[in-house]
## 1
Amino acid sequence: MTYHVLVQPSGHSFEIEENELILDAALRQGVSFPYGCRSGSCGTCLGKVISGEIEYPEGLPLTIMEHEHKQGKAVFCVSIAKSDLTLEVKEVSSSEDIQIKTLPARVISLKKLSDDVMEMTLKLPETERLAFRAGQYIEIILKDKSRRAFSIANSPSNDEVLELHLRHVEGGKFTEYVFNEMKEKTILRFEGPFGSFHIRENSNRPLLLIAGGTGFAPIKAMLEKLIEEADTRPVYLYWGVRERSDLYRNDLAEKWAFQHKHISYIPVLSEFKENDIDWQGRTGFVHKAVIEDFTDLSGFDVYMAGPPVMIDAAKTSFTQQGLPEDQLFSDSFEFAKQA
Ligand SMILES: Cc1cc2nc3c(=O)[nH]c(=O)nc-3n(C[C@H](O)[C@H](O)[C@H](O)COP(=O)(O)OP(=O)(O)OC[C@H]3O[C@@H](n4cnc5c(N)ncnc54)[C@H](O)[C@@H]3O)c2cc1C
């Protein structure tokens, strides 16, 4: 049995399966309900049932008194739908609404995606979840209290884990440790989420998503979220790397383009190596490929992440090619400040 849920005042709607938690169904379909503990105790996901019936399988949580329940007051992280619903919820509309937390996390997997890129999956403590916007980053806190920024590579709908893509930096304190010594089950501490690199909801312009190297991480999170939301405006995904083996999730990017007519994927190699002799695709700098393809960028929103040199070069070229500055959003992967 599936029920329909309408959210006020946004007018967003989603479907919910029998026995599925309302918060889970909302996040799964890209509707940004606020939340914290996911156990009914913090009240962050508080809202109102305007019509329809909900139920608390584990009993009424402490945050809701019996008379408040009767008046429609509700928390959605521990409740399920018993009919079609109309709910009043203050959806998370900007990064400022999101709580920044310092949390421990366990490294549950370390997987080499290429010679110099590691996929690290972090699991949060059972009672914790991290609300974040697709494209944001966390800061890992090292023993000497210095910090290293890494973008979250998964969509917020899967908030039990955080996926990171770490490029090995020669002589880099943290990434040398990750590549050479770190074992699964290691506990790390981090703070986040940070950053305003996320898709703006007040625009329907076609999107140019541009990744340089591990800049693919936040772009992946954004694209996963757009797909979940069934957003069908044209998306042009450019991924610039040195050689073909650096396209460490090429399979995924090709799958997106294959499964969704509105998504185009353009990988671009900057250094043509012997192994890539049969490469039929684009070569050169990724931002140059973009300006070759689009002589007028004024009708696009551009989101780009990656090395500072790429971001700086692209900013200059794109604005010369008609892109208004307020349609350009970027995360420049600077090195951490040296302590
Ligand atoms: C918002 C944000 C998001 C990021 N997301 C990601 C991500 O998803 N994936 C990813 O791989 N990286 C990401 N980065 C970059 C990452 O944080 C850095 O590469 C980080 O410093 C690596 O840590 P490390 O301890 O291994 O290297 P560090 O110990 O920080 O040292 C790096 C090496 O470079 C040298 N160095 C330091 N500063 C400079 C400088 N300014 N110029 C040249 N050399 C310098 C140092 O001497 C050292 O040898 C992100 C950065 C930011 C700011």
## 2
Amino acid sequence: MVTAILWTGLLIAALGYFGWQLWGRFSVLLKARRDDGRKYDSKTLVPRLKQTLIYAFGQKKFFRDDQPAGVMHIIIFWGFVTLLFQVITMFGRGWDPEFRIPLFGVNALGGPYGFAKDIFEVAVWVAVSIGLFRWAVVRPTRLFGFLPAEKRLSEHSHWEAYLILIFISAIMASGLFYDAGRMAAYAATNPEIAAEMHWQPVSAALSRLFASNPELGLTISNLSWWVHNLVILCFLNLLPRSKHFHIITAIPNVFFGKVEPKGRLAKRDFTVENPLFGRSTPDQFTAKQVLDMYSCTECGRCSTNCPATATGKPLAPRQFLVDLRNTIYANQTKLAMAKTGTDGAAGEVTFEPVVAEDKPISDEVVWSCLECRACEEACPVNIEYVDKIVDIRQHLVQEASRFPAELNRAFKGMETQSNPWGISSAERTTWADGFDVPTLMEKPDAEYLYYVGCGGSFDSNNRKATQSFVRILKEAGVSFAILGQSETCNGDSARRLGNEYLYQTLAEQLSNTLKENNVKKILVNCPHCFNTLKNEYPDFGGDWEVTHAAALVGKLINDGKVKIDTKKSFDKKVVYHDSCYYGRFNDIYDEPRNLINQVPGAQLGEMERCKEKGMCCGAGGGRMWMEEKADQRVNLLRTDQALESKPDVIATSCPYCRIMIGSGINEKGLADKVGVMDVMEIVAASIAESKEPTQPKISP
Ligand code: SF4
Ligand code: SF4
């Protein structure tokens, strides 16, 4: 009776405090903005359930980096899921020592469940002990921080990590000893408990410790019951105050994750009554962005994969997210009490910006990001970074007018010459001189429009890639045309740099040109053009099929329309560098590799960081147009990674990658030894010549 009263009081107090804490966090989510441009309707239900099954319950990303730690997490996750029934049983026994969940009698589900419970209690205990050893002795960088700034993180989470691991360990051990003591005390007189001994081998084995002293067994069992339940209640109340809040928020976070194309940024609506030009204060982040912040497990997989962190920039994505989360927590009461505006904004309450030179998130942190998505790909709970970085950049560019000075040139170039180099727009078609390429005006019935893009038009090395692709198209007799002087910049760089207004201006202009010309099929040889035309232009009424060069050329070869000349042996070791926008943003990994493999003599190797784990060349997120003030530059690091496989040629399929890796090779003085070529150039070098060439030969 005393136990029941005491237990009831404690339970009410603990659950009440837990509910109050949870409500504080939850009320911020309720008040947060919803303008993330995404759909949360019944049509997205199936993909949402699918991603929840794969990533939350299947724990897919835990098999990616640091597998031993991943396996430990999977054991702990499934252990907790399984042991929920044990927790309910133990709670119920506070009022009735014989309590069992309906159908969980030992002769029904309870028997097999008891077996699973015993095994998981041991497995989780072992996993947690290894976890404690890693924290105390191994101390991996992934957990302890990468940058001087990130050391702050490890300081605050040290005690928390130890405490949580000790808590879990205590829950597992007390669960086993509760059953063991109970068996020792009652198995002789209670047939159900005796039957439990057949199903629960570990508890039964432990019960032998008390075989000669059943009284001691009973005392240990009662003590274990209190330890188990009190630790669970403390654990529950620690969750909302710690990184272990992810136990509650991670599954919803995965469920509400992006189901739109990964490379699609939301179109900012400048016309609504209460326009938002960027996000900088805690009240401006969307509910999903706040849920991301709540869900971080601080595992550090994002920072491990981040090229900015790897080259000593002040950005470490985990720290960036934790700093954002701390700002939300610090403003929680204000956020929850703020009068919600029509669009979810916090009405009259004012908040300080999260990014400023005197704040943990400085401007430089935000400008260091390459928007390469390596962090998102690695994150086990699918936290998104690129949208937050772009939102904050929009604030810096469009509201605060604070951005690196060199971007003035790129913005002006796009505004006046419709290319970020600022080269005279009259030079856009110089690459086509002597190539006899029709424009859409000359050939309005062309099947494809080849949208060349700024990189392929203005950069001298990339012009060779453009010419090679055109040569292949012509050899195959593909019906295509270009826009010629009507082609304009698609604005991708402006958007990634936070200049959404400029992006929308350019996107309106180009999409109108495409619509006026009744374009239905577009060819590109640039991942940035591919991504924005395919995934983002539908917001501007774009209704066309976008095909990338490697996909079409692969088909042309398979269909026999392009013949590979087996006598033209390439005879070189090639390593392919994945661009982020074909790769992680659009899952295009195989087609360029398949093409290289079809070239006679080409021996394709791989870098350690390739495909999903590939590393940005240093130009992503508009960094192409920024100076890199650092001891270590991203393009040099990536070039070193490529050189490790001792290639003769580094193959690329992005104009920016070609420039960045090419500059890395030049700086290392290896231009005579290692070539940098677009995949189209490699293919063009091995195709059979038609009898009467229709275009000049391209010098290598
Ligand atoms: S997008 Fe790339 S550069 Fe930016 S934080 Fe993520 S990993 Fe780092
Ligand atoms: S954002 Fe994801 S990958 Fe990074 S620390 Fe948090 S949970 Fe880990």
